[in-house]
Each structure stands twice: as C-alpha cells, then as structure tokens.
Amino acid sequence: MENKHKRMRIGEGKISGALSIFLGALSLGGILCFKFPEQLTTPEFREVYTPEIVENLMLGGIIATFLFALVSLLLANNKKYAVVGVVLGALAVLLGGMTVEGRAVEKMNWSLGLDWLILDLLVMVLIFVPIELVFPKNKLQSKFHPEWRTDLVYFGISHLAIQLFGVLTKKPAVAFFGWMNLDGVHTWVNELPFVIELLIALVVTDLFQYAAHRIFHSHYFLWRFHSIHHSTENMDWLAGSRTHFIDIFFTRSMSYMPLYVLGFSTLTFNVYIVFIAIHAVFIHANTRINFGFLKYIITTPQYHHWHHCQEPEHYGNNFAVVFPFIDKIFGTYYLPGNEWPKGTGLVDASFPKGFMKQFIFPFVKNPFKNDLLPEERSDR
Ligand SMILES: [Zn+2]
Ligand SMILES: [Zn+2]
C-alpha cells in the first residue's frame, strides 16, 4: 500500500509547490493586515514595524511565491500546488501587495493577532524545518503527517487570540494579588541586573508551571483536557501547539502569577515571552540534536519526548518545561543516557479528529477506553 504521508523528495516539485503555497498564504495574510490594521494587527507590535522592513518582506514574499510556483510547474506531474501558489500570489498582488503603504491606525478595543501569526509562523518555519530536515529523530516522519492540519489550526487560533489570552490569563493574578501594595517588591526586582532578573523569572514561572502541569496529570477530569496535548503521535515543531483552551488558560494563569506579583520589567517580560515561545516549539521538535551536557541544565527534545512517551512504566516524569533540576527536586526526573522513547501518544485513549471536536469532547466525554477510577488515573 502506498504511504500517503511519506517524506517529500527533492526533484518532485512538491517541496517548491508547498513553499509557494506557504509564502503565498503569508503574503495574502500580510496584505490583509495592511487593509485592516485595526482589526487584524497587535497594537504592541504596530509600534515596532518600520515601513521599509514590511515593504521588503511583502515584495520578497510575493516574488518568492511566483518563483517557487514556476519551479513546481516545471518539475511536478501534479500541477495543483503551483496553481494554488499562483492564485494566492495573484490575490496578494491584486490587493496591492507590491505597493503597500502604511497609514494612521485608529485604536480599537479588540483585535486579532494575524501579524503575530504570520511572523511567528515564518520565523518558526525558518528555524525548525531545516533542523528537522537535516537532523531528524524520526527519519520517516513527513511534515504533512495525518494530523498536521489540526496542529496548524491550534497554532493559528492561539496566535490570532493572543490579545484575548493575554487579558484572560492575567485576570486571576490581578484578582488574587491586585489589592496588595507590592511596590517595594517591584523596586527590589527592578534594581537587579537584567540577567539575574530574567533567570529568576524563568525559574519561578517554571516552578508554577510545574505545579499546574502535575495537577493536570493527576486529576482525572483535568487529565481529559491535558491528554489532548499528549495525543500527538507525530512529534514535531508544530505538535506542541495542540493544547486545549482550558489547559492553556490554567497553566498560563498560574505561570503569570509570579510575574505579576514580582513586577518584572517590560524588557524581562518580553525576553521571557520570546524565549518561552521558541523553547516550547523546540522541545517538541522532531530532531535528534541533544546539546551535550547542556541537556542536564535546560530541557531538550529528548527530555520532553520522554514526557510524551507511550510506555506506561515511564509515565509521570519530566513535567518541567525549562529546567530539569525542578523534576530532580520532586523526584520526577527521567533521562536515560541517549535513549529515546519508542513512541509517543496515548495508547488507551481516542480523540475525535479536528480542532472543534477536540475542543468540545473532554467537556462531555471521557476519551479513555477503560473507565478507570479517579485515583487510578493519577499515576500519569
Ligand atoms: Zn503533560
Ligand atoms: Zn508537550
């Protein structure tokens, strides 16, 4: 039987076709951001865009879309990739993609983060796709495995809703600590050298994150939600995005609390956000790169893949997202030399396919085949 999801090979015209569609879609999204900046761009980001950078990105994106479409047209038997790429590129041109010009933007209460989605997708693909292609862990796994579209929808929605998530996850911190006068603590933290401040932010949030993560594993009702994140059998840079809204909300709210209470500077906060965004993608990546002794200091793909392992005897380990020493302290550390888990995913559960179905499912049904008692579920 032919494997529909085997890796693409150079010379088939498929890679160029996929690149053409990818860049065409990003260019089209980019021009939509220009047409509707109030509704589609992030207010904090607007301040850092310069017209030259954006103009060149748009122009480069559209030209590359057409060039890759041409290569695909020449090489591929199936011309549909090239046609889709050309259509997307043409739409971007028709909407004015070659001659973008900034304009004054009115302030709105709510907006979607389409600009954040486009930029992060572009940067993550530029960093991680080459790494996964050159140093893959699972050599046979294609980028276009059976569930890549579902994972992409998770990635898209969490980025579009950046503002909503930001506001919602800050609420519990404000509710619990907003009434306290914490100016003294804030002054002390802000007087620390930047590196120390950043390190404290990373360690403290990882401790809170660790606690939230363990709660999601040990409470049988919450495990229904978090197990969606564990349902991925094809670990790659995009797979970490598969996280239920309830999971994101509670885990981020918990991690947010120390940041709010200790009052870190805007610079520390922004560096923290960028680091966590890249690192969370990194630990799910399909790459065998293991970083020598560094793997004992900071979590790596091998470390987090063990957290996703299929072997029941190794469940309940490696909850820390950034620092393995936190698992060491709490006795949940597992890193056997250079060994990797045989597989990832859930052997005893089944989720429906697709974002919306997975969103509703844990509220109404138990994804696990055997109805274990709550206390038996807690060994995860
Ligand atoms: Zn987990
Ligand atoms: Zn994970």
Automatic annotation (TrEMBL):
Gene Ontology terms for molecular function: oxidoreductase activity
Which coarse location class describes where this protein primarily resides? membrane
Report which residue ranges the record marks as coiled coil: none
- TM spans, by residue? 57-76, 81-100, 112-131, 152-168, 188-208, 259-282
Q: What is its EC number?
A: 1.-.-.-
Lineage top rank: taxon? Bacteria
- Annotated ranges, domain Fatty acid hydroxylase: 199-332
InterPro entries listed in its UniProt record? Fatty_acid_hydroxylase, Sterol_Desaturase_Related
Q: Any idea where this protein resides?
A: Membrane
Instruction: Give UniProt keywords alphabetically.
Output: Membrane, Oxidoreductase, Transmembrane, Transmembrane helix
Specify the protein name.
Sterol desaturase family protein
